[in-house]
Amino acid sequence: MAALSQSLLNAFQKWKLNPFPSSQEISDSWHNERFISRARALFFARLLFLGMVFLMFILPAWNHYFKLSSPVAVGIYVGMWLYSLANYTVLHRPVAGRVATYVSLCLDLLFMVLLIFQSEKGGLENPLLATQLLFTMFFVLLFPKPISILPPLLVLLITLRLDQLLQHGIAAVDLLTLFWYLALNFAILYVLVYLNSREILAHKAIVELQDNIQKHALAEERHRLAREIHDGLGATLSSLIFQSEYLLQLTKEEKLLNEIGELKSTAEDSMEELRRSVKMMRGDFDLTQSLGDYAQAFAERSRLDIQFKKTGLEKPLSSSTQLALFRALQESLTNVAKHAQAQAVVVELLFIDNSVSLTVSDNGKGFEPSKPTPGHYGLIHLKERALNLGGSFDIRSSFENGTHISFTVPLSS
Asked: Any idea what the Cα angle at residue 376 is, between residues 371 and 377, rounded to 5°?
């Protein structure tokens, strides 16, 4: 019965550790998926742009206007296809996808500048310059920070400077065109950054709501499991105890009385284990009280002098930490009763800084910790419990000098 209730609690503990993805995991996944969807949109927009450039190659009038008949222009065009496809293949990689997308956008801008200034009408009057606004939009959508507008703005400044060098001066209409483009760029920046911040706030609110719903669902499921265990397994154990008491009244045979008494004692221990499991599921488990009660009950059953004390300011502990400390006490006292031949045991729950320790010291015959008894795994399991929680497990013992066990776990576990 005790094993059954413990297996139910262990299953609940494993399920409770990560029943749902965390808020941070949801947020990271959302940001990543959003980036990938926008980068895909960039890829298809780039395909359209490459298609237009292809028409510039094959249509004589366009080819003549943009002067694309040179092998260098063909090489640049092929290079754009290659880095566009390479960028698309690494979109799902968190770091590589972002780096490749940013670099490819900068290369797009460079290619656009080359197209503008090798055409018949270069500079601010070129119709391709309007594409700069599209790149501003993609830069801000993919990298939503004010600094993301820097590369597109550099294109405008480079265009203005080259225009000045080629034409030996800047006309008033050129300044008007420049300021018009600048105004449009900052308008795009403001609108997209504002909408992005609103989108992030809305997503955060949804994630918080989802997190609250999940916590509520988890609490409801925890209470449902506690009710099922208490009403089902608890009722069965209670019946077993009552039947054992009834049988004790019927029989007079000493051997049978001992067997029935042992059965009743086991059922009572299982009932106590079940109550502790239910308390832990419902969040009503008081570690200090439970350790003290268990030490007192064990002392009465084993006829050992067990003293329990708490040192330090008690701090909140996770369910996994409370369970590990309670199991450490159970295993330690069981070992004392079975092997130590001790008369007195001191149990201390110690809260120090950012850790909590359970120490169990006895005045028994002691043993050699470096030579564990074959087939006995209790101490090994305690060490594994401590390590799984980021803590430590220490044994000090020698023959005729008793044994001291220390089970330490960080409060953050």
From this structure: 100
Q: Exposure string (b/e) for 135-174, b if CB count within 10 Å is 16 or more? A: bbbbbbbbbbeeebbebbbebbeebbebbeeeeeebeeeb
* 304 vs 344: CA distance, rounded Å: 6
pLDDT value at 119 more than 70: yes
* pLDDT for res 360: 94
For residue range 203-241, what is the model confidence (pLDDT) as tens digits?
Answer: 888 888 877 777 676 666 666 666 666 556 666 766 677
Contact 8, 228 (CB under 8 A): no
**Strand pairing partners for 344?**
305
Domain match, 195 and 46 both: yes
pLDDT tens per residue, range 58-117: 998 888 888 888 888 888 889 999 999 999 999 988 889 999 999 999 998 888 888 887
Does residue 168 carry a pLDDT above 70?
Answer: no
69-83, pLDDT tens digit by residue?
A: 888 888 888 999 999
Residues 185 and 304 in one domain: no
Residues 178 and 312 in one domain: no
Which tokens go with 21?
Answer: 């993805």
Do 81 and 193 fall into the same domain?
yes
- With contact defined as beta carbons under 8 Å apart, do 45 and 138 qualify? yes
Q: 228: number of CA atoms within 13 Å, CB side?
A: 10
Q: Are residues 24 and 145 in the same domain?
A: yes
- Pair (80, 208) in one structural domain: yes
From residue 63, how far is each of 76, 124, 364 by CA, in Å?
15, 20, 98
Residues with Cβ within 8 Å of residue 62, at least 6 apart in sequence: 55, 56, 68
Q: Which residue has the tokens 């990271």?
A: 28
Are residues 306 and 205 located together in one domain of the fold? no
| Residue 237 located in a structural domain | no
Q: Assess if residue 408 is contained within a domain.
A: yes
Please, are residues 320 and 13 in contact by the beta-carbon 8 Å criterion?
yes
**Predicted confidence band of residue 391 (pLDDT cuts 50, 70, 90):** very high
Could you list the residue range(s) of the whole structural domain that residue 367 is in?
286-413
Rg of the chain, C-alpha, whole Å = 37
Do residues 302 and 200 share a domain?
no
CATH code of the domain containing 310: 3.30.565.10
Does residue 368 belong to any structural domain of this protein? yes
Contact 348, 311 (CB under 8 A): yes
Domain count across the chain? 2
- Contact indicator for 397, 372 with CB cutoff of 8 Å: no
Asked if residue 250 is part of any domain, the answer here is no
